[in-house]
Design a protein that fits this description.
The protein is mostly helical and 234 residues long. It has helices at 2-5, 14-38, 45-57, 66-73, 84-109, 111-134, 148-167, 171-179, 182-189, 193-215, 221-230.
Length: 234
């Protein structure tokens, strides 16, 4: 039947998957409508209420605690590898304590800069995770993508996004001070290239969330069989 034929297209279920896309889209459209209605633009109350809804109603800022509910109630997840329990509990506790101390310090002495910590940790963590996944397993003796080539390949793939980031960075303003505004004028002549680049980057962000959700479905035996050895856990 059709339901079986298309079962592999859904991460959770048709209703859940569509709600993941539709509800945030409706929130965005509602925020745009509210901003146009009040004439405040994209930086006023409409953006604030939209960000709050994303964080606390759509769970972007609250879902993180669910990991510990999961391992607290499904204890078998703590024993999938010989040292899983010690690594997970001890490591998570150490990360919590260190991060709490750094955030406390940042909030006390540099409140705005403290916001950078979480984003930086997440980016570097994912970079090194992908590097480990790309390295060959002991059985893959003929692959050429190994060692420094892995890091070079990742940097090459990220280069277009890094370039978009440079164009939208504060360094352009610094360059304008030296070149009498020539840097901004140069980039403006390339429009809409850079604006499209920002849109494409944001689209890639959401697409990678979707892809990761399928790549790391560890409840499926074949996923564990393929993925865990690449993480050094199999």
């Amino acid at each position: 039947p059709a339901s079986v034929r298309f079962q592999g297209l859904w991460l959770f279920s048709p209703r859940a998957d569509l709600s993941i896309l539709v509800l945030p889209t409706l929130l965005m459209l509602a925020s745009v409508w509210l901003a146009s209605l009040t004439g405040e633009g994209s930086q006023g109350f409409a953006q604030s209420i939209g960000r709050w809804t994303s964080q606390y109603v759509f769970l972007n800022g609250t879902h993180v605690i669910l990991t510990f509910l999961l391992v607290g109630t499904r204890r078998e997840l703590l024993h999938t590898t010989p040292h899983q329990s010690r690594l997970l509990v001890g490591g998570a506790s150490a990360v919590f304590a260190l991060t709490f101390a750094l955030l406390w310090y940042g909030d006390r002495y540099a409140p705005l800069l403290a916001l950078l910590l979480g984003a930086g940790i997440h980016g570097l963590e994912y970079f090194f995770l992908t590097g480990r996944m790309l390295q060959p397993t002991p059985g893959e003796t003929t692959t050429r993508l190994r060692g420094p080539r892995v890091w070079a390949a990742m940097l090459a793939v990220m280069a277009p996004i890094i370039l978009v980031g440079v164009v939208n960075s504060p360094f352009v303003t610094l360059a304008d001070g030296v070149t009498q505004g020539a840097a901004t004028a140069f980039f403006l002549r390339q429009q809409p290239l850079w604006s499209l680049g920002v849109l494409a980057t944001n689209a890639v962000v959401l697409a990678h969330y979707f892809a990761d959700a399928f790549l790391y479905r560890f409840r499926i035996p074949r996923v564990r069989e393929v993925t865990l050895p690449r993480l050094g856990l199999g």
